[in-house]
Design brief:
With 525 residues, the chain is of the alpha/beta class. The chain has 19 helices and 14 strands.
Amino acid sequence: MFLTITTTGTAERPATDLGFLLHKHPDKAQAFSTSCGTAHVLYPEADDQRCTAALLLEVDPVALVRRGKGKGRGGAPDAALAQYVNDRPYAASSLLAVALSSVFSSALRGVCHARPELPGQARPLRIAVPALPARGGPGLVRRLFEPLGWTVTAEPVPLDEEFPEWGDSRYVRLELESDSLTLAEALRHLYVLLPVLDDAKHYWVTSEEVDKLLRAGEGWLSGHPEQNLITSRYLARRWSLTRQAKERLELVRLAEADDSEVDELDNAVAPEAETEAGAAGTGDGAEGKPVSLAAQRRDAIVTALRESGAARVLDLGCGEGQLVQELLKDTRFTEIVGVDVSVRALTIAARRLKLDRMGERQAARVTLRQGSLVYTDKQLKGYDAAVLSEVIEHLDLPRLPALEYAVFGTARPRTVLVTTPNAEYNVRWETLPAGHVRHRDHRFEWTRAQFGQWAHSVAERHGYDVGFRPVGPDDPEVGPPTQMAVFTLRATRGEGASGHESRNTRNNRRRDECGNEDEKEATAA
C-alpha cells in the first residue's frame, strides 16, 4: 500500500520544508508500528526545488485477521480464504487512513513547533496513489475531490492488460494536484475520503467515528455537495450515527452562515423555573401548588390554537418539546412539527416525547426538525398555525427582519402566535436585580408599547390582523408577565386564506432577493 506527497519550491522557500511539516527528516528512512502493520516513511527525492515523501504500509493480513478474530471486512465465517487473500496489502483503504493519522498526526492537526508559520501556508502539492479502490468509479473520485480544490486524474486500472476485453477493475490510479491547499487540509481530505471510496472499514464503527469525521471534515465537509454520501459511507452506513453527524454538520453550516460559534446556536437551556409567578399571584394547580408561568403560556397557546381551528401546527423554536407534548394530547392537532436550531434541545425533546416507543399512529402526527428560523424553508409552507413562544427575545435585533420574512413573508400560516416577556413586569420579580433581563440569553425584553409597535408593523407589512392577550396575572400597573400577539392572515383581493403573497410581501421578497444577489456578488468579489 503506497502513497506519495510531492511539493516544489525555491531557494527562498525550499521544497524540503515538507520534512518540517511531516516531522520526518528527509535524510532518514523511518519505520513505525501501526495497528495494521508497519509503516515506512522515506524520501525518494529531496532538494530545494522538489521534495517527495513516500508512505509505504506493509500489511500483515494474517495478523490482522487473528487480531480481529474474524471480524471486519472479509471476516465472514463462510469466506475463510478471503480473510487472508484480499486486496488489503495493496490497495489504499481505511488501513492507509489509519496509518496517515498515526504517522503524520501532527501534520494532520496543522502543528509544527519548529516552524510554526509553515502549516498555514498553501503550497504546490501532488499526491499519487497507485491503487485506490473506487466504488463508484473515476466519476465519483472527481465528484469527491474536485469541489475541494484538487485537479483530479483518476485512471481506471484494467483487470488484465493482456485481455482488455475483460474491462476495468474497481481500482483507479489517482493523482491529485493543487496550489491552494495546506498540507493539513490535504491530509484531512485523504483521511476521510480514502475509506469513503473503498466503502468499507476494517474495524467496528462506533460513535467515536462521528467525532473523528467532524474533526477531519472541519472547514470543508459541511458545504461539500456529496456530504450525504461521504457521511453515510464513512460511518459504515449506520443510520443512527449518520443522522447524528448530519445534525451536527447542519449546525456547523448554520453557525458559519450566521458568522457565529456553534455553541452560540446550540444553546439549549432548561425551561425557566418560573415559580416566582406563584408569588406574583398565579392561580393554583392540583393540590394547591402554584401553576408556573411556563404552564400558563402553554395553556394560553393551546386555547388560541383551538379557537383558530388549526389542525397542522408549527412550533418554531420548540426547545425541549414541552409545547409539542401538550399539543399531542389533543387529537384535533393532526400534524405537529417542532423546529429548533439546537441539536441538544431536539435530542431532549425526542426523549421527552418517547419517540422511539411511540405508537405508529401517534408518531405519524409529530416531526422534529433542525433548522434556523432566520432562513426561509419551503417545507414550512402551508400550515394552519405557527407558534413562536419565547423565541424572538433570543435573537439579536438586526436578525428579527429575517425571522419576520421567513415566517410571515414565506411560510405564511393562517395564524401566528408570538409570546415574549413583558419588561414592565420585571419589577414584580423579587429575585431579579433592577435593569436585568430574565434570562442570560435574552438579547432584549420589550415593554407592551414596544411589542405592540413591532407586531402592528409586521402585520401591516405582511397582510395580517393582530390582537393581544395577557398571559399570567394581569397587573393593573405593569401588565402581565408574558404578552402574546395573535396574528390572523387577512383575505384580501387576490389573496385567499390559503396564503398567497400580498403586494407588500412580494415587494419585501423582491427586495430580499436583490439583497441576496448583492451579497453573493460581494462574497464572490
